[in-house]
Design a protein that fits this description.
The protein has 1 helix and 14 strands, in the order E-E-E-E-E-E-E-E-E-E-E-E-E-E-H. It is mostly beta strands. It starts with 39 loop residues before the first strand and ends with a helix.
């Protein structure tokens, strides 16, 4: 009844369709936070050693060892970030870990899961439930924008 011997089968119908045309790999939902528009973004695959400075907002999601100076701009420390060194910025948002002194003339936010071990000088502060802070806080709402080189700023801050 059925003859399945090789050579006795009819040819397969011809088609231009391939199974790969409809295949699109599923996109995993992103759990990484992204930098706001106009910010530099340093991702989790980086380890930086030395002074980091600039004239634009920065989003750090990496390991940084050394001072960070973005005096007139915003520094965001992402959830994957571990920063060891002093930070000078206009404002700072901590989702990750910072071990060092932080000077932000406008405001500081330590988010749930964020950690700051060091002294803090700022105009305004917000520490969410679930955040960790160990150090001294000086809130000075009349603080002026921080400009200049990092060495001068840190020396003047340590004399007070």
């Amino acid at each position: 009844m059925w003859n399945n011997a090789p050579g006795n089968q009819p040819p397969a119908p011809k088609s231009n369709y391939t199974a790969y045309e409809d295949f699109k790999p599923a996109q995993a939902p992103s759990t990484q936070q992204h930098a706001p528009n106009g910010s530099a973004n340093l991702g989790p695959g980086l380890t930086l050693r030395g002074e980091l400075s600039g004239q634009e907002d920065v989003y750090l999601d990496c390991k940084v060892e050394g001072p960070i100076n973005f005096g007139g701009n915003r520094v965001t420390v992402g959830k994957n970030s571990v920063v060891t060194g002093d930070v000078v910025a206009r404002e700072a948002v901590l989702h990750g870990k910072l071990s060092g002194d932080l000077r932000a003339h406008d405001r500081v936010e330590v988010k749930n899961g964020g950690a700051l071990v060091g002294d803090l000088v700022t105009g305004r502060i917000s520490i969410e439930e679930g955040a960790y802070f160990k150090g001294h806080i000086e809130v000075d709402p009349s603080s002026k924008p921080i400009r200049g080189d990092l060495g001068t700023i840190l020396k003047s801050g340590s004399q007070s």
